[in-house]
Amino acid sequence: MADPNAIKKGVFLHDSPVFPPSSTLEPPFDRAAERCLLRKLDLRILPVLWILHLVNFIDRANIGNAKIQGMEVELNLVGQRFNICVWVFNLGYLVAGIPLQIAFKKYGPRSLCVMMFLWGIAVIGCGLVRRWEQFVVCRLLEGVAESAYISGSAYLIGAYYSKNEYLTRYVFFSTAGILAGAINGFVSSLIAKMDGTAGYGAWRWIFIIEGCVTIFVSLACWPIVPPFPEDCNFLSPEDKALMLARVKADGGHVSDDEITFKKTLGFLKDWKIWAGVFMYIGVTENANSLANFQPTILKGLGYTATQAQVHTIPVYIVGAVFSVIFAYMSEWLQRRYYFYMLGWTVLAMGLAVEIAYPANPNVRYMGMFFIACGCYLAMPVGVIWVSINSGSGYKRAVSIAAIISFGTVGAFVSSNVFLFKEAPRFHTGFSTGLGLACMGALAATITWFGCKRENKRRDHERAELPAVLDENMKELGDEHPDFRFAL
User: Fold this and answer.
1) Where does the record place the Major facilitator superfamily (MFS) profile domain (predicted)?
2) Residue 380: exposed, middle, or buried by beta-carbon count in 10 A (0-12, 13-18, 19+)?
């Protein structure tokens, strides 16, 4: 027997969760009920993932702050040794990203806390090593443990929200990573005062304290990390039924999806995923350069180590605000390509300033703001654009993991083109960044034209098919005749 109140809200309830019978992508749900549901989801899902991501990025980016607090001297990081310590982290990302993402999809969101606990141990290890080779091992293990966190969180967010709600939520989540750069500078400047405590240098305390915080947060968040939608226990029956109906109609999560090695390889044959990888490489190289080398670059402008830490803060804050504003506009206008290109344009302007190397250090400092704004807009737009064009279930999970994992090639590049013999100008590093950014813009353009052409082809073929199709959207995903690619 149906609940009349539920019917008024646009949901038909039975004793067990039931999806609406309509197979259309946009069922006529009650908008007031949806707005109420979205507020509840926003307050329950995003804050905990935001906090976890904040800790995640602090642990990833603290190597740049530790370097200028004595690590370089104590571990004898001569030549390109520091660069090796940077890129080996991304090697862990590249190797473990897709396998751990599949494990996340299979075992559930609490696996994110397990990953966090393990990388917290690795971070503490970074502060206890005596040789640079030991530091490399710890960074590699940290990269492995962190490799599926962002992609797993991205999938979890997309599991609860529709395509038209996904980007702004993911960008809000991403601001934690951006602001972590600002917090890192501030926290590192405070921890620097502990230099010599218990016989440890300031750089060691950066790793030890932040690693301990990571372990504590992973344990504290274990009971509150949201499960997958079908196991949701924080909504009323009516709200849960509405949420599940929305997931089936327009979500990217499939609860009973199956995965095999052959299916994974089949997913990776989709050209759009690899275009997304190149889009991501084009901006992540510059984002990693900003995270790992900005303190060194700012120190080269004449600041002391502490002043360089503090001056990173405004750069990250402005980048976060810029990305949120224009990501919201992208979602409101339902245009992804244009806003990826906006991010690319701003990024290219900042890189051009750094390559020109004007005499005024304030102008070069301004260039850092442009780089941050461009990177932090284009990165999330590219990831979400490709993920919503990858259907649902394991294919979406694999596509996100592939973009983020293989996209770390950009980080490999950034860690090897910022040559310290070129400090503080780093002409090779910034020039390479501009070249890769242009490659990302080309990949985005190809994606836009390719998806637009495919939509036109499907519109033409769909007119010749029956109004109601026997094919199931869940089974065919983005190959379904009614599926249209976002532009």
Assistant:
1) 45-455
2) buried
